[in-house]
Design goal:
With 601 residues, this protein is an alpha/beta fold. It has four domains: 212 residues, P-loop containing nucleotide triphosphate hydrolases (Rossmann fold); 58 residues; 232 residues, 3-Layer(aba) Sandwich (Rossmann fold); 83 residues. The protein has 17 helices and 22 strands. The strands form six sheets. The chain has a six-stranded mixed β-sheet, with helices on both faces. Helix 3 packs antiparallel against helix 4, helix 7 packs parallel to helix 16 and helix 16 runs antiparallel to helix 17.
Amino acid sequence: MPATLISTQNIDKSYSNTRLFKNLSVNIHSGERIGLIGPNGAGKSTLLKILASLEQVDAGELSSSSGIRIAYLPQVDDLEENLSIKEIITHHFPDHLADWEQQKQLNDIQHQMKFSDLDKICATLSGGWKKRVALACILAQDTDLVLLDEPTNHLDLQGIIWLESFLQQARFAFVLISHDRFILENTCNRIMDLDRRYKQGYLKVRGNYSQFLQDQQKYLDEQRLEETALSNKVRREIDWLRQGPKARTTKAQYRVDKAHAMIDDLSELKQRNNLQTEAGLRFESGDRRSKKLMHARGISKTRGGQSLFKDLELLLSPGMKIGIMGVNGSGKSSLIDTLRGRLEPDTGEVEITQGVNVVTLDQSRHLPNEKLSLKRALAPDGDTVLFHGTPMHVSAWAKKFLFQKEQLELPVTQLSGGERARVLLANIMLEKAEILILDEPTNDLDIPTLEVLEESLLEFTGALLLITHDRYLMDRVCDEIIYLTGNGTVKVFADTFQLSNYQKSLVVVNKPTEVRIPGSNKLRHQELKTLRKAFSKIERDIDKAELNKQSLENELHDPDNATDPTKLEDLSQAIHKLNIEIELLVETWESQGSKIAELEK
């Protein structure tokens, strides 16, 4: 049985009037690779700091096994900027190591982290390479448990892929906070969702992210069925209470107390089931049906002596969804500014069809006036906003974006990164857009909000330009990816899988190589991507139908329904229809799978 490395017993933690968690008891064992997820404000970062003994609990206890070595990696790396990579790493070696042992470990770490020069000064490194230095310090300590808080923040795709490989090979247990679902899928063997919807305050599932989604749905469905069953029991007890016991016997008083306890349990269960965890995101498209919204002809741009992109051609039409990726500093934001008209291209021109409205979410997260209250930031002109032609009170509008009524008078400066992102998303959703430009919209957003963002972008009928390092979002939403290599060359890929293979080929040969995608081959990749998207949707539809069927079968076998023949007949017919639907979905799924397998040959 795996040893318990660290555990919490009934811990409470609050900030001001906000309770993060109560009576939270968590065990972390050796060999566990835990992906820690949950909505913004659930207390994920605070829990990590408590486990690292950097935060105190309000109540409860924290215990750990004797001699355990724990390392904590914060969101923002805390490194000595004026020291070299070598100096920073050697500072973290245990004191008992001899010089030759330190040198051997240093060589191993340099090879594993792929540092070309250990004498480079930290201040000269990019964010991605600083993250590698921070991880190298953890390797130098030879730890048992590593606590990582959003390590993918500000990493480019190449850095994220490297981090994923690093975590896959890790010999230590870890707890990882991340909204990168590919990282969670490919590196974790446990997923822990910190959320007040669960009775314990969290749900911990054995398996990766895919397994978690299945188990989470099952848990929530069972919890809703539990609410229905308890509601029926409470209704019967209330009827009994209204009649009044004939005599105040001990047995009758016990039943009274039990009835009140059941009412309290039902109230708490309803509250958990009705907690809103998803923002109400929906972009409004403009009415223009012109086939040409924007046309960039042969545009090039050089900044600071670096060629960012050259001879770039781009024609945007309604319904097109284009992703933009590249290494940090390759010019992604400069490309967006050029397309928007904020920067003049060195060569070529950008034509935006007259009357086309371009709406942009900037990655800087700056609000026009930081001194405003949340209420004024959401509704500058009064107490209502006009959303898709319908007036809505600011408190209802705020609730759609997961803000509480009590927060409306808070100044914007007190909002978290995720809350700021939701305010900006709320603002741009009040505008009609023919072209929507989102520059790193996923920063600081939790997974439930990301999932709603994906759906809203898929439903958006205008043109989309999306800069993100979120591979899951990119593959679900975008039809193709424009990739800036950093040397002025622009490449086009069908999805991040194809892009990752290209990057791996560069590492293998250790020099830049050209990847040529013939027209027919490109069409084949596009067809594959379309089929994979459809295949994934069918899988989700099958899972949903199976869960619905399970729920109906539970109702069918519920003793409370045994004496209601009409309801039993309705349930039987509904199950029969679902069986037919599932059979058709499975046939389609098998057909699509065969097509994909044929194209992948």
